[in-house]
Specification:
Elements: E1 7-12, H1 17-27, E2 33-36, H2 58-67, E3 70-76, H3 92-96, H4 98-107, H5 110-122, E4 127-129, H6 131-134, E5 143-144, H7 152-170, E6 176-180, E7 183-187, H8 193-205, E8 216-219, E9 233-234, H9 236-244, E10 249-253, E11 258-259, H10 262-272, E12 275-279
Parallel strand pairs: 1-2, 1-3, 3-4, 8-10, 9-11, 10-12
Antiparallel strand pairs: 5-12, 6-7, 6-8
Helix pairs in contact: 4-5, 8-9, 9-10
């Protein structure tokens, strides 16, 4: 949602998502301030006001939020490494939540950590909004998004992988699952979707997955997930790895998943005979 009082801040991890969010905000007449994360962000931000911050430096983040009158913050892009405790810098508002933050960093899953970060940012007097609120055009719609569509076998794999992904999400472990011939062959862990798909390709090459059945990747929001952060995201690299793993396609939750580089991603999927499908879980 754009046009509100106060400046928009974008915390930028790796990947192209922060760029899409920043461009969408600028197209809507905003002047976003970018916080590229040290050792995580991999895009150039010379065209935007920006300041590099460390992942755990809440003191610097709070100072910049106040200095630039930032009232809304978007968390976007991947973050591979949690900060060590000695990398976290406090301010007074942070200290109130310190015991909760320490416990979450030590033992919480990704969703718990993201919720904790949202609370800490909002304790600085601004509101966290989702990337999809700034760039709604990135959201996946219902049904086939390219020229390919799932067949009956694919739909059975989708159903199996959906059930597995939902169970996995409730444990706050990951968002993705792969089903081949109705059998779950891979679950996403902390390694992420790309590494999981590379593992599926290896299993296929070793003959441990049937060469006669293709299979499907499903990515879903965790049931308890705060959708302002870490929505399931697919792009060209996802399609490349789905193809390398011999899968028929990928299905994501419509309205709760982001499709990056849409035109190029769907063109690549069509060329490989891979479907990209938006699931309507409200039906």
């Amino acid at each position: 949602m754009t046009g509100e009082a106060g400046r928009l801040g974008i915390i930028a991890g790796s990947g192209m998502l922060p760029v899409y969010v920043a461009d969408a905000a600028r197209a809507a007449g905003e002047d976003p301030f970018i916080f590229p994360l040290k050792n995580e962000a991999d895009q150039r931000w010379s065209g935007f006001d920006h300041a590099v911050i460390s992942v755990g430096d809440m003191r610097q983040l709070a100072s910049l939020i106040k200095k630039h009158d930032i009232k809304r913050v978007v968390m976007s892009g991947a973050v591979k490494k949690r900060p060590n405790f000695n990398e976290i810098h406090f301010n007074l508002r942070f200290l109130v939540k310190l015991p909760f933050a320490v416990k979450t960093l030590l033992s919480g899953g990704d969703d718990a950590v993201l919720k904790m970060v949202i609370q800490l940012i909002e304790a600085q007097g601004c509101r966290v909004v989702g990337a999809h609120e700034i760039a709604p055009q990135l959201l996946a719609e219902t049904g086939p998004l390219g020229h390919q569509a799932p067949n009956e076998d694919d739909r059975r794999d989708i159903a199996a992988a959906m059930a597995a992904a939902e169970a996995l999400g409730r444990l706050d472990v990951g968002q993705g699952a792969v089903s081949v011939g109705g059998r779950i062959v891979a679950l996403e862990g902390v390694e992420g979707t790309d590494k999981m798909l590379e593992r599926v390709a290896e299993l296929r090459a070793e003959g441990r997955i049937s060469a006669k059945r293709r299979g499907v990747l499903v990515k879903l929001c965790k049931p308890q997930q705060d959708i302002r952060a870490d929505l399931p995201t697919i792009g060209q690299s996802t399609i490349d790895r789905v193809a390398a793993a011999g899968l028929a396609g990928v299905a994501v939750q419509a309205g709760r998943a982001l499709l990056l580089q849409r035109e190029e991603t769907l063109k690549r999927a069509d060329a490989a005979g891979i479907f990209v499908f938006g699931l309507d879980l409200e039906m």
